[in-house]
Q: What sequence folds into this?
């Protein structure tokens, strides 16, 4: 009876996973299929294989959306945000994890509340301040905004990694004459790198795909991100679905490929940080 129940449970699990995988992958497959078709074929039969393979959709949309420039802007914005979040977040998490903070519960409540506050509440005052300081269309200034948004989550996640490091390692290093900075850089950072990688992937993913802040603060053509430039194509190519599908595929492809290659480390980082702190 137990064997039959186990097989039934396993079968149901496989069915649920299969349905979830199909739901997640079907839109991507449809996008890939229609990215090399003319609009007439997409309208007539979006699920059919192309009769005319139109590979020129990619070259045309790359040129018209200026993806060579906007992809570079997005990469710079994502990289600068990741560096800021990891630098400030890891230092904060180290202090909160290894030092006795009497007001930790208050700090924890503040970080948790910060993750739930919608960015729309701060959008107008932020824009007013950026405009007064002449920081509109400044990619590095926008990365500071992203850093403020992602830091609370990053600090709380990285803190669990620092808590998991045995106290004996820190005490031995201090006895040997290491400074707190050396303990942080030489002892802790090599041990918590899975958490750092996990934070980098999450921050990079959301920064690459973020639209509201990017379209508000990066308005000039030379400072736009890939997502914003793709959005502007919807008016230019409102009837050319082939080029719109090709553009969407180009935008999502880098982050999908990166996640596929690093998914093992990402899963390890998420599970490794599940320590009660």
A:
């Amino acid at each position: 009876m137990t064997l039959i129940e186990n097989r039934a449970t396993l079968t149901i699990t496989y069915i649920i996973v299969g349905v979830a995988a199909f739901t997640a992958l079907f839109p991507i497959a449809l996008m890939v299929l229609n990215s090399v078709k003319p609009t007439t074929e997409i309208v007539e039969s979006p699920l059919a294989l192309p009769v005319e393979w139109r590979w020129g959709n990619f070259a045309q949309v790359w040129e018209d959306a200026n993806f060579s420039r906007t992809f570079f802007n997005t990469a710079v914005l994502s990289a600068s945000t990741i560096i800021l979040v990891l630098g400030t977040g890891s230092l904060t998490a180290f202090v909160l994890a290894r030092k006795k903070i009497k007001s930790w519960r208050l700090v924890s409540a503040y970080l948790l509340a910060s993750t739930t506050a919608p960015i729309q509440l701060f959008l107008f005052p932020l824009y007013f301040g950026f405009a007064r300081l002449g920081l509109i269309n400044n990619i590095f200034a926008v990365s500071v905004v992203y850093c403020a948004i992602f830091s609370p989550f990053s600090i709380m996640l990285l803190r669990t990694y620092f808590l998991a490091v045995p106290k004996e390692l820190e005490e031995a290093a201090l006895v040997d004459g290491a400074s707190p900075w050396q303990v942080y850089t030489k002892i802790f950072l090599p041990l918590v790198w899975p958490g750092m990688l996990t934070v980098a992937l999450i921050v990079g993913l959301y920064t690459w795909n973020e639209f509201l802040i990017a379209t508000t603060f990066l308005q000039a053509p030379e400072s736009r991100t890939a997502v914003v430039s793709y959005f502007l194509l919807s008016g230019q190519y409102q009837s050319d679905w082939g080029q719109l599908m090709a553009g969407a595929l180009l935008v999502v492809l880098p982050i999908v490929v990166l996640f596929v290659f690093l998914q093992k480390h990402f899963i390890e980082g998420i599970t490794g940080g599940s320590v009660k702190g």
Summary: The chain has two domains: 2-34, 63-225+254-272. Confidence is low (pLDDT under 50) at residues 273-277. The chain is about 80% helix and 0% strand.
